[in-house]
Amino acid sequence: MERRNFLRSSVLGAGALAFSGSLWQQAASAAPAQLAPGPYGALLAADANGIQLPAGFTSQVVARSGQTVPGTSYTWHSAPDGGACFADGTGWIYVSNAETSSGSGGGASMIRFDSAGTPTAASRILSGTNSNCAGGKTPWNTWLSCEETSTGRVWETYPFGGTAVARPAMGRFKHEAAAADPVRQVIYLTEDESNGCLYRFVLTTWGNLASGTLQVLKAGTATSGSFTWANVPDPDGSPTATRSQVSGAKRFNGGEGCHYADNTLWFTTKGDNRVWQLNLAANTYELAYDDGLVSPGPAPLTGVDNITGATSGDLYVAEDGGNMEICMITPDDKISVFLRISGQSSSEITGPAFSPAGNRLYFSSQRGTSGSSTGGITYCVTGPFRT
């Protein structure tokens, strides 16, 4: 049974419709994704940038850490990580985190592109923060940059101009990624701990992150079932960590990327190489992918990390390590390799995000060919992505 094929006409991240319980249950009863040929065909030999792609797709280098972004006077940050795209008139903006310390340029930067995809400006939008790993885009066009430290904060940044603001009501913990749900008017948050939790922040006023209620997901120990939410008594996480405050909170092994679309949240856990799926209309959860359940193997996706989606309903999951691949999970629960970066085995793929038109996929190799945070490379792949 296909999980997402009836949702393809919706634009991901926009105000999604709420579906009836019976329809949602019918769409959410599939087994974890299985290996199959990709919809774009086999990968070709590596191109000049060391990237293997299907026929019809091309890659280009957008920026390199420590070097000036072409067409601008801005030096690109080290260790590029989570990212997102924002429509900007006829062009767009790509935002990228810097997963380094405050003394080494931690924070986030942006690149502005014209309608042809040519960089026209770049600048810093957040400085002086630590280990900004992933984050998430809001419907009001701000970027939530999340600190991956034990007392990490969520910073709301303004790609179109404005001073970044810490949002302590969203909790102090080892933040990873964030995803906005305009239907329930909440922000989902992952936690990068081996016994971490999944949270949601219920805004007092939608569009204003200054106040709200932090909640944690409660469920059994199985890989599928029903769930509820419970308030976290002390979002500050001191002296008791947020993940240890609520009895029955479900544990997830190393929460990484998360993505919301059409009454569904997908998020990844690196410790067990899984992609989880929350069916929010039915309050149930299940596995969308598990490398131990791919039969016949071998499993194509290991080191699961950042995740994003296309308007087609296809999910794109980046690897931290593995074979340096971005894998694709289709709405009919098939998984395949979309691209592979060669010669960069000491790096990880970060920040996948589609341009507003859906024909360009931006991402970074955090440590590039050097294996150092100062060797990061940010790429763009252009081609006939499914819509």
TrEMBL record:
It comes from the Bacteria. Residues 1-27 form the signal peptide. InterPro entries: PhoX, TAT_signal, WD40, WD40/YVTN_repeat-like_dom_sf. The keyword Signal applies. SUPFAM superfamilies: YWTD domain. Keywords: Signal. The keyword Cytoplasm does not apply. PANTHER family: DUF839 DOMAIN-CONTAINING PROTEIN, SLR8030 PROTEIN. This is PhoX family protein. It comes from Yinghuangia soli.
